[in-house]
Write a structure and sequence with these properties.
18 helices; guanyl-nucleotide exchange factor activity; Sec7_C_sf
Length: about 325
Amino acid sequence: MGQGLWRVARNQQLQQQYSEQCFLQRDRERGRRVGPPLAEPLQQRRTPQCQVPGADISHLLRVRRGKEEQGFIDLEMLPPELSITILSYLNATDLCLASCVWQDLGNDEYLWQGLCKSTWGHCSIYNRRLPSGFSYRKLYMELDEGSLTFNANPQEGISYFMSRGILVDHPKEIAKFIFYTRMLNWKMLRIYLDERRDVLDELVTLHNFSNQFLPNALRDFFRHIHAPEERGEYLETLITKFSHRFCACNPTLVQEVGLSPDAVYVLCYSLILLSIDLTSPHVKNKMSKREFIRNTRRAAQNISEDFVGHLYDNIYLIGHVAA
């Protein structure tokens, strides 16, 4: 039923074994001494000296064993809060299987709401007043179906979300949906953003590059908006938009270092070429730090040598900016 549920049950079994060992240890100690007073209550004599947390759960396990039943503990015998917490570690597939055994718990709206928002972080429907009879489990199925449709045909996928009322036909809402979703195929996403430049503009503004070093900011940018495999007009558009956004997020750095959107544009291309040079196994003679500084400062003369040297060190130690 899932590794999360297995770990919980295993911990409970170990806990129950520890409790039994405490009982045996107490019985052995009493065998070496004179028996307890006759007036001592039976329940008090059977209470172990060691305190075991979760004794109620251990008792439930003993009840199941007394009935000669093996397997996982019945979640319906636990407090609802604990049962919901256990099931919250399951994915959608395991939760559907769990609903076959524990129908009320497996269909709990709280669990399906968490699955929806953890997988698709933003949808327009989240901010609306939900109608009576609304089901997050049904919404999860529609979101999953729409994502699969998007990965086959981006336009049809977005149209599916809009027809179900999940998304509003507005560039900012679509950009937020893309930004907070990790199930979309990056190749199809690149095709869609190349066609919808208005969505691309909104998607760029969602990035916050404040106080980030330039190569790290570029990696974060390409993590959400994958770079094309070949240089072309789309790559130039991405770097241009990134350059303006980076400068807008770091006005102090722009003044101190002398950066400008044009200078950042040149540095981004230098970082991409350096990344290819240092990481490609086909390049035998790697570019040295001195060569990188000399070549970069020819195109961006206002940038200090120390700053360009730090750029080289970052790529050399961390790796490709668009990997």
